[in-house]
Request: fold
Amino acid sequence: MSEEKSDLIDVQINGEWHSFPKGTRMIEACREAGVEVPHYCYHPKLTSPGNCRMCLVEMGMPPRPRPGEDPPEPDEDGHLPISWIPRPAIACANTIAPNMGINTESAMTEECRKGVMELLLANHPLDCPICDQAGECSLQEFSVEHGKGESRFREQKVKKPKNVEVGPRIRLDDERCIMCSRCVRFTDEIADDPVLGFTDRGSHTVLTVYPGRELANNYSLNTVDICPVGALTSNDFRFQMRVWFMKETKTIDVNCATGANVTVYSREDKIYRITPRQNNDVNSDWMPDSHRLNFHWIESDARLTDPLVKKGDTHKQATWQEAVATSADALASLEGSEIAVIASARMTNEELLMTNRLVKHLGAGHVDTVTRTGEADGYLISADRNPNTNGVKLVLGLDDPGSQIDAIKEGIEQGRIKAIIALQENLVEDADFSADLLGKLDFLLTSYPLANPTADVAHVVLPSAGWAEKSGTMINVTGRLQRLNQVIDGPGQTLESWEIIRDLIQATGGGNGIYAVNDIFKQLTQEVSEFEGLTWGQIGDLGIPLIETGETIPLLEREAERKAKGLIVG
Amino acid sequence: MSAIQYRPGKEPHAKEHRVVFKNVDRADWDTSLKTYEGEGGYEQLKKALGMEPKAITDEVKAAGLRGRGGAGFPAGMKWSFLPPNNEKPVYLICNADESEPGTFKDRYIIHQDPHQLIEGMAIACFATGAHLAYIYIREEFPEGAEILEKAIAEAHKAGYLGKDIQGSDFDLEIYIHRGAGAYICGEETGLIESLEGKRPYPRIKPPYFPAAMGLYLCPTIVNNVETLCHVKHILEIGSEAWAKTGTPNNTGTRILCVSGDVKKPGYYEVQVGKVTMGELINDMCGGLKEGRELKAVIPGGSSAKVLRADEVFTVGRGDDARELTIWDIPMDFDTLAACGSMAGSGGVIVIDDSRSISWILNNINNFYAHESCGQCTPCREGVLWMKKITDRVVAGKASPTDIDTLEGVAKNIDGRTICAFGEAASWPTESFVEKFRDELVGDTKTELEDDFLNAEALTAAANLR
Amino acid sequence: MSFAVPSDLEKEIDDRITHYPVSKRSAVLPVLHALQHHFGFIEEDAVEWAAAKLELEPIQVLEVVTFYPGFRQSAPGKCHIRVCRTLSCAMAGSYELMDSICEKAGIDRSGVTHHNPIAVSDDGKFSIEFAECLASCGTGPVCLMGDDFHEAVTDVDGLLSQYK
Ligand SMILES: Cc1cc2nc3c(=O)[nH]c(=O)nc-3n(C[C@H](O)[C@H](O)[C@H](O)COP(=O)(O)O)c2cc1C
Ligand code: SF4
Ligand code: SF4
Ligand code: FES
Ligand code: FES
Reply:
């Protein structure tokens, strides 16, 4: 055996031999071999209590010769025969061993699964038709596959609390709980907020939140995601929409620089739910509640749906053509040095590249973006609440984003700056520009998804797409390039920022043949050295490391530690 | 030995061989250190402190001492499972939870001869390198806990515990930890969780074998009270002499606790395998009650599979094979295992022909339904289900297929749980149904076949899709 | 009424905690035992007091309290009786013993459920519950009267009179 190979172990899974690194859990070995082992309590990011017993499989080891007996002969590949053990083993917590056999299709394995299913269903309310989890309940899923059609359970079911408010965002149905303890382990091990626990014992065990306490931490909704049944449900999503009717879009969270990977569930241009999507280099399997729930504004009444042009004191609805032409006229009479462009670190790299073009085309004397910071929460939320500050630095070429804002204000004050193009930023509320100050401008253009005080004083207001309504790329806090994917169409006449900028450039006499966001990405790869040679497809669903920032994500660091200790699979 | 006077009516039976129970029921005995020292108390500890720790483990190994708590695992071998290059602290826990129904032996050691246990523990700690030890005692022994605390304080004062014991440089603290009424705290990993202040949810093995990852995830030895007492006697007479008592692979003496339908229930310390079931019941326990016949025996605590009175057991292999009636079974680990049951904790429950099997099984199922920790699916859901079925059998509200279901549920638990409670809870049902099916079915009514208590179950299948 | 732990009890508890040099959490059971011994049962304030004492979340203490039948969450009678229910004692007449004690002490067990296993006599002198095997199966039926152990109980009047 070569040195490299010595860390690999040969395991037979359903008759076929495979090699895996030493220490691999049986369940993960099976998964890699394309064999799914049903499981409830096991979660690779949490400790393994082995309590649900759903993952029991038939397992075998090489036969142990009796005293005096000859050891068995290996076959031509060096594999020994397998002597199957009469007692099943849990695949989730046991690690593989040399020459181990795993059979997930044997009569014994099948019997175990059926048995566990029957027992899990014994006291489980069989009200799937009205259960919110229907369609994504692993109990329902496996029971169709492994359960018996008809229950032998003739007794009265154990009664437990139903519809318990365990926190501001979550309800619990204890009769549905299968006591897998995933939620308890999550709150204890990941969220450091052990407010959930089991009380009483045996069949009467109930999951409880301590009286007077709440499951209220900012990661609480992750328990809903990992609950394998409909015991924990989200108040925000409950009874909103059956999961099988919804479209799933993979994209990223834009509420901070971490850029948690998410799946957005939508139907007919309405978003119903956002859940974290596993990315071990970004957010593991988790995301903060505050971020996942921050999508209702998308369908707010305050959405801007049509371009507006100020005529006298009032805004009048206009066509895109009118609005853009009005802007071009106003800008044409100004020197570049009199124009400031304030873009946003919420924009994609593609939008930022277009912004850069605009700046150059107009010869704008001033350019900056608005910073947005808060406390890092020590888990996933970054202190930088903009999703693409690294993009601003790289693509827009700003060394110190936000540092020019004061100078721009001063320029307006002194009359040196006469026009501002505010892209995706609300200057009054988010950058402390007073309406009076903005009133000194000859021309203020703003593009934004929502009506706001900056728009109130703008000469031209352009309705732009929100994050869910556009595609592009962003660079997160650790320097990872990730894809933002369009989930729904924007309302009314909204356009994506890159389109808006393209139109502005064209209306002011510039030209380029850009018709799709992919075209801009191609230009990025030609114009920004870090992007050189990249393709859109290469970025994939999980992104790729682009630059070194030296930043880390605390939650991931702690998971790595637990993984190193062998507590979790990771 | 003849000098020992026992309290009137409490004299050991002639077939007994008292070692660990030597001082139980003695007329001139109390729990004080003085009394204990008067009979050579703590001499073996002193001897041990002069030995190589490994030599003690080797003696215990050579003696073949098997655990008296239930599983019968060789104690010396368990001790040698401590990781060789271990740098973590080692802990020792004495399992004094005595909660297997039918078992009542540790109680008497604790209440009447506490120093014997402390000396045995101290020797075991020295052998295994433990400097901190706990006695996990069930809460229902409040007086026992007090007696042990007092004994520990005395031993401490006399320099048998604490720092630099007897000038040997060896430090040891022993503390009492009281349970709170849970059978599962007898299971060693449940016990450890309980001692860590958590719910006593047993841990999965692997990886949590106590000898490798026990209390506070450090190497930990868990032994039963009786097992630890034997350690002292092995040192006293040497492993060779000790192993001469009992029978090969079933060495030493052990205490059998007999309860149920015999004239003289009680505890009897016998050489393992030297006394048969017949001798135990008929001679030592004075036989069955007047006019009664034997129906069944549960030989090793309520978790052991029941033996029917008229069974013929084939034990031994090949040329050694022989047939035994229940009366001929020598009370040792290996033969009881060969008979399809186990010696377990030594609790022998005798059942005569006046008893209803349904009632007996239901009582047992009640126990397990009450004691399941509820952590793992098969046991949590299965034991209550079994109890509910036998509740109905006893109440005359069950149908014959319920007995099949009962058996099916037991088989769904057996071998599929986190801890051995699963077997403990399913073996009684499996064995009673197997051996007394006719009687159980006789207590059911065919006309109840379609009687569903739980209407939900009928619609279940439809709803699942 | 606010919950207050007298200083000598707290001292006893602090002393117990020293028996667990590796982890304070290990002292949950002894702390609860001491509190129950003093107050008769574990009320919610006691759970919170114990949690604060051991620097735990209250749920971590409640999980333990509710697991063990040895901890009561409601007030027992002056003398709390535990009758062994398990096989050998049942064979020796423990169910009959339970009925007899209830009758003579004036206890109505009809409201007993899994979550509420204890019944108290009208005069508050006695409370009773079944316990599982008390490890004296050879001398059944057995019971605990408070901390006192009684074997082969036949004379219920005599037994009760000692605790009146
Ligand atoms: C459900 C269950 C209950 C047990 N109860 C006890 C007990 O009360 N006392 C005991 O010594 N061992 C008990 N055991 C066995 C212990 O797990 C462990 O094997 C024993 O304490 C080891 O000591 P020994 O090797 O000296 O027998 C129990 C095991 C199980 C599975
Ligand atoms: S609520 Fe859900 S996640 Fe929590 S223990 Fe119950 S089934 Fe598991
Ligand atoms: S087998 Fe029973 S007692 Fe053991 S861990 Fe599972 S539920 Fe608990
Ligand atoms: S997944 Fe629950 S026991 Fe393995
Ligand atoms: S059965 Fe009552 S003490 Fe064991």
Summary: Chain A touches chain C through 14 residues (CB under 8 Å). The two ends of chain A are 29 Å apart (CA to CA).
